[in-house]
Amino acid sequence: MSSLSDIAAKLGLGPDFATAGNRAVVSPITGEVIGRVADDDAASVAAKTAAAVAAFAGWREVPAPRRGELVRRLGERLREAKEALGALVTLEAGKIVQEGLGEVQEMIDICDFAVGLSRQLYGLTIASERPGHAMRETWLPLGPVAVITAFNFPVAVWSWNAALALVCGDSVVWKPSEKTPLTALAVQALFEKVAADFPEAPKGLCSLVIGDAAIGAQLARDERIPLVSATGSTRMGRAVAPIVAERFGRSLLELGGNNAMIVTPSADLELAVRAILFAAVGTAGQRCTTLRRLIVHKDVRDRLVPALKAAYGKVKIGDPREAGTLLGPLIDGRSFEAMAAALDKARTAGGTVTGGERVLADRYKDAFYVTPALVEMPAQADVVKTETFAPILYVMTYEKFEDAIALHNGVPQGLSSSIFTMNLKEAERFTAAAGSDCGIANVNIGPSGAEIGGAFGGEKETGGGRESGSDAWKAYMRRQTSTVNYSDALPLAQGVVFDIG
Ligand code: NAD
Predict the structure, then answer these.
(1) Is the dihedral of CA 491, 494, 495, 497 positive or negative?
(2) At what angle do helices 269-281 and 298-313 cross, to 10 degrees?
(3) In angstroms, what is the span from residue 265 Cα to ligand 1's centroid?
(4) First to last CA, the chain
(5) Is the CB of 175 under 6 A from ligand 1?
(6) Which listed residue, of 85, 111, 162, 438, carries a Cα 20 to 30 Å from 360's Cα?
(7) CB of 213 closer than 6 A to ligand 1?
């Protein structure tokens, strides 16, 4: 099951799936056009947004546990479709089979989480200072949510948002990456099948708009959309956030990362090497949580770096559909150029580069496979402080723990982080107030591969948003404080007297 038509058949998408339209869809595996889709235009985006507004009006009144039932059924449908949808993620985004399947599993997991949540959208009761008064805080549905997603998690990020938004009583308009519209169309079709059998689900509850940044910007500007959840580069966030802020909308931003690991003298180096390999090389370095900076104590560097080079040498690079492949292609040629440019800058800044060459070019002239790059840097130069979305791992050394933390936090991004140590004091310091400044801080595991149960997101240029687990659902609701007077008097707060006399 590796061609688009095979996968489409498995997903029940019909023979005409992705056969016409202005936009050519390219598989990064071969660089070939595998399908065509039609972009939305401004009018169709406006119409879908209007439908989302109308859908919200009905959906917000469906009891939350019943809304959860729709998401439960979506999760069931995803279980049935896991293999085929995972294969489509592989074909369109170039992830290895295991990672394609893992991405769909993440969708299933967040559906399960959201089903439970649908009975736990708890508010508060608050003691009133006035006699005969009751005060409470309630969470109410917010409105249509725009979800803008990146190519590298083409379906999971929608589900993190949509599963929560749906149980919270919101409708959703999704703009996927223009590089990965096929997986989005497939997921939308799955959703529509589930919604068609669910009488309370209004038309337009979840819709999809295909197109580039201009379509995303249209959603960002639309005053009918109270929340714009946008995942992608910091550059995109800088464009979207002011537009949403200007109309006093909310944005939930999940932007670039520049994630580091500190390896201390007491670290279990065997575990560390395995963790580094998955975090730095997995998904061809194209995860927001990819490990990009390794901060190694000077006493372990000479053991760790050679072990890492040996492990890098064993990574099988190639078609992500083939068994044993660990490193698939970069998304496109621009991504390869960005990688090559970053390595040049690193060399200029005194770095020693191992790997980072293009491979398999004779077999795939339009696809971009690389060996993972390990770059030993004398210092944290500007290029190290920049997120390059490719498998480049910069290695730096430290002597004092404080210096490691300073290096660690000395970048503009603040998504994920990790430390390998057996020293309890170091582990606790890393996760305490003066430790890692990131949204995610792990001990003895790498920075990537988060579970859905925790809140996901980061600080600084990563945008500050939190998605997925914990109480991230609150972003998709509006908070209301109500005071109810069940007495016969009208006492005012703060003891204020305001009487005619
Ligand atoms: P990108 O910023 O190029 O595009 C992301 C999405 O934003 C796409 O749908 C794109 O069409 C849209 N977009 C771009 N400019 C826009 C604008 N001005 N207005 C409205 N929409 C706009 O990112 P990408 O190359 O697809 O993905 C890689 C980036 O995403 C990396 O920086 C990565 O770290 C980040 N990312 C972050 C997270 C996270 O949770 N923090 C998760 C995945 C990816």
Answers:
(1) negative
(2) 50
(3) 37
(4) 84
(5) yes
(6) 85
(7) yes
Closest CA to 436 of 409, 464, 401: 409
Q: Which of 106, 254, 426, 461 is catalytic?
A: 254
Burial 434-462 (b: 16+ CB within 10 A, else e): ebbbbbbbbeebbbbbbebeebbbbebbb
The residues, any chain, with a CB within 8 Å of residue 461's CB and separated by 6 or more, are 234, 237, 255, 256, 412, 413, 414
Name the active-site residue from 168, 288, 376, 461. 288
Q: What percent of the chain has pLDDT over 70?
A: 100
For the Cβ of 173 lying below 6 angstroms from any atom of ligand 1, the answer is no
Strand bridging mode 145-148 / 172-175: parallel
pLDDT of 1 strictly over 80: no
Predicted TM-score (pTM) above 0.85: yes
Rounded average pLDDT over 291-313: 98
CB 405 less than 6 A from any atom of ligand 1: no
CB 149 within 8 A of CB 177: yes
Residue 476 Cα to ligand 1 middle (Å): 20
CA distance 187 to 167: 18
Cα 162 to middle of ligand 1, angstroms: 17
Edge-to-edge strand ranges of the sheet holding 206-208: 206-208, 172-175, 145-148, 227-231, 250-254
Residue 501 pLDDT grade (very low, low, confident, very high; cuts 50, 70, 90):
confident
Q: Which residue has the tokens 């059924």?
A: 73
Is pLDDT above 90 for 229? Answer: yes
Amino acid at the residue 184? A
Q: Helical H runs in 349-479? A: 401-409, 424-430
Q: Could you confirm whether 288 is annotated as catalytic?
A: yes
pLDDT at 204 over 80: yes
The string of pLDDT tens digits covering residues 72-114 is: 999 999 999 999 999 999 999 999 999 999 999 999 999 999 9
Active site residue 111: no
- C-alpha 121: how far from chain center: 23
Q: How far is the CA of 455 from the centre of ligand 1 (A)?
A: 19
DSSP 109: H
